[in-house]
Design goal:
Among the domains are: 2-74, no CATH class; 377-488, no CATH class. It has 18 helices and 15 strands. The longest helix is centred in the middle third of the chain and has 26 residues, at 241-266. It is an alpha/beta fold. It is globular. Strands 6-7-8-9-12-13-14-15 form an eight-stranded parallel barrel, surrounded by eight helices. Strands 1-2-3-5-4 form a five-stranded antiparallel β-sheet. Strands 10-11 form a two-stranded antiparallel ribbon. Strand 8 (163-169), helix 7 and strand 9 (185-189) form a beta-alpha-beta unit. Bound molecules: zinc ion (ZN). Zinc ion (ZN) is lined by residues 168, 278, 280-281, 309, 350.
């Protein structure tokens, strides 16, 4: 703890502490409240808060007293103290006034780079964003990701607000849990309630099933839609019996679930919540007419959403550019964007990273009424840094990822041509980072993150985790720079 004496002394003298060989000081984090000065530092690979002064903030922090200062580890308890004393460290909702970008940080190390990327842009960061799937694969909890975001905004002195998204939530108990923890954004995944297989049924089969619904239900839908035409700010949407029946069978149960969740949790939450509906992770591409149907039902039932994620035509595979017919995508995206504008919510783009060929189209038609989610691409930038600064570690991870790739296919839909990946033993160290410019090797790493970061040898020691994090924390500026460049390119092309 002696290494912190000069920081404590500087704070006691009312000066800004300087970094030294042993202690890095995060200058932007310096806060003075009442009689307390507080700052974040790093020694070896560990970060701490250092407080001097007296009063409730000083007393609330947990730490070791050093020469009248207090050195506090970045624990959950201390994260809650920051939340209690500094409002900007708590996640908040943004509604529909400004574009938002989901910046999932699987490592708990990416947020400083993300903050630097979006500062002074026309977009707010959703710094914490993790699906239950990602949390499970990484042995992390919702609390861990909130704490990481809290400490990141404090470290960066970022006071413009950020959100926290409980992503792809399917279970009511998880929604309740996330809201209790303070999440500001709920993405309701309705894929369990969306019926697959309707496309394959004949018109007669569909109408027979519709006929088996309660009379009151059939009436509710038929009188509103059959042979009716709707004008969504110039976009004409019409339904006949066949198209209505199909949409009711595909989305009816999902819409009932959205309504229930809204009434039971979202509208009763203690603070404003950004409520997103996700109908993207299904086999069914969301036709603009289907999107309209879902949105119109939400409106009829008094359910307010801030964003909705349809499944677009073509493929939004993880970590690589758009695959599909760009002309058709542009036509449908324009219609989806018009529908979203008509109902007053954001169009949400999932698996939104690296879709460089369609970003200008997305930017043009959504005009800022946009939420876009990225996550794995931020981990790939971390892998790029590893390839640059620790080639030996990169090589071992690469081999392991290839050996274990098959296991990931039960979680992720990707189709990389692994034969196209350059053989590792023929690749020089200085060429290793370019694996992160190659689609198949990007996807190889994109989906094996959980396997890599939890891999153990027979004695139960981790194979990569400790060295990976140590390397990255030692090169946090390189990681920040690579994120600013990579995510900055997204933001530029989206016009935000
Ligand atoms: Zn999704």
């Amino acid at each position: 703890m002696e290494q912190f004496q000069s920081v404590v002394k500087a704070l006691q003298e009312g000066q800004s502490p300087e970094s030294s060989d042993v202690v890095k000081v995060y200058q932007h984090s310096l806060e003075k409240q009442d009689n307390v000065s507080l700052i974040m530092v790093k020694a070896a690979q560990t970060k701490y808060l250092i407080a001097v002064g007296d009063g409730p903030l000083f007393d609330a922090l947990n730490g070791e007293v050093v020469q009248g200062g207090k050195v506090c580890p970045l624990t959950h308890e201390n994260s809650q103290v920051l939340n209690q004393f500094f409002d900007y460290t708590k996640p908040q909702a943004f509604g529909t006034d400004i574009a938002t970008m989901g910046l999932g940080d699987r490592l708990g190390l990416a947020s400083p780079g993300h903050i630097e990327t979006v500062r002074d842009r026309k977009v707010k960061p959703i710094l914490a964003q993790q699906s239950i799937r990602e949390l499970t694969l990484l042995n992390r909890t919702m609390t861990d990701i909130l704490d990481a975001a809290t400490f990141a905004v404090f470290q960066e002195g970022y006071k413009d607000g950020y959100g926290a998204d409980a992503d792809h939530i399917k279970l009511e108990e998880d929604i309740k849990y996330a809201l209790d923890l303070g999440f500001s954004f709920i993405t309701l995944d309705c894929s369990e309630q969306i019926r697959n297989g309707i496309e394959e049924m004949s018109v007669a089969e569909v109408s027979k099933e519709f006929a088996s619904l309660p009379a009151e239900r059939k009436d509710y839908y038929s009188t509103h839609y059959v042979n009716k035409s709707f004008d969504a700010d110039g976009l004409n949407i019409t339904f006949d019996e066949a198209s209505l029946h199909k949409n009711v069978l595909v989305y009816g149960e999902a819409i009932d679930f959205m309504e229930h969740v809204y009434n039971a949790y979202i509208s009763k939450a203690e603070k404003a919540i950004d409520f997103e509906i996700s109908i993207d992770e299904t086999e069914t591409v969301t036709a603009p007419e289907a999107h309209f149907f879902v949105a119109e039902e939400l409106r009829r039932r008094g359910v307010t959403v801030q964003s909705l994620a349809p499944r677009f035509c073509g493929e939004f595979q993880k970590g690589i550019d758009y695959i599909g017919d760009i002309t058709q995508f542009e036509k449908e995206l324009q219609e989806h964007a018009e529908i979203a504008k008509y109902f007053g919510y954001k169009l949400s783009i999932h698996s939104g990273s690296d879709k460089f060929s369609v970003f200008p189209i997305i930017g043009k038609y959504t005009e800022g009424l946009l939420h876009i989610k990225t996550a794995g691409t931020n981990w790939l930038e971390a892998v790029r840094v590893i390839a640059q600064v620790n080639p030996d570690l990169y090589r071992r991870m690469h081999v392991y990822a290839e050996e274990h790739f098959e296991e990931t296919l039960k979680y992720y839909h990707v189709t990389p041509d692994l034969d196209s990946v350059a053989p590792l033993n023929e690749t020089k160290d200085e060429e290793l980072p370019s694996y992160m410019d190659h689609d198949a090797s990007r996807q190889l790493f994109h989906v094996t993150y959980g396997i890599l970061l939890t891999a153990q040898d027979e004695a139960g020691n981790d194979l990569f985790n400790t060295e990976f994090f140590t390397t990255l924390i030692n090169h946090e500026d390189a990681y920040r720079e690579s994120l600013v460049k990579h995510i900055g390119r997204h933001v530029d092309l989206l016009g935000l």
